[in-house]
Specification:
Length: about 150
């Protein structure tokens, strides 16, 4: 089994989309074609707004991570937000998620970020077992207001 981490490429669209739709299903969300196309453009643009890395095993994509950098009002450096992480169920417990987190950490250090952070649902016990090993849980509570914007 040859595992390789690399940046997402234009030629990855169909395999990435299959994984992305599985990720959305895990979070009980339906894909929206327009939103998926916008995300794909943001991930693959020459000057990508959202960064992405993938892991392939024997030439097949089995996991992805999406992340982006943001300015901080608390420090002179940026923060890195790991927004999406998904590994095909058939390839879990092989260190793939850990490798993807390490790839984001490497990119954040290269960009001289002072913090790498992410969120997950409290009931996502499988992912949280890994997260508890590689990071510390903060005491911040997330609040949100969902906004409806008319076009």
């Amino acid at each position: 089994m040859e595992m390789r981490t690399r940046h997402l490429q234009e030629s990855d669209r169909s395999e990435w989309q299959e994984l992305y739709y599985a990720y959305l299903a895990f979070y009980e969300s339906e894909p929206i074609d327009e939103a998926t196309n916008i995300l794909w453009t943001r991930l693959t643009a020459e000057s990508a707004e959202i960064q992405s890395s993938v892991i392939e095993i024997d030439g097949k994509l089995v996991g992805f991570v999406h992340y982006h950098f943001q300015l901080s009002s608390w420090s002179h450096s940026s923060h890195c937000y790991l927004e999406d992480l998904y590994v095909d169920e058939r390839f879990r417990n092989r260190g793939i998620a850990s490798a993807l987190i390490e790839e984001v950490k490497r990119a954040a250090l290269e960009r001289q970020c002072s913090e790498l952070f992410w969120i997950t649902r409290s009931g996502n016990a499988t992912a949280r077992r890994l997260y508890d090993k590689v990071a510390r849980q903060s005491d911040f509570v997330r609040y949100e207001i969902l906004l409806e914007n008319d076009k």
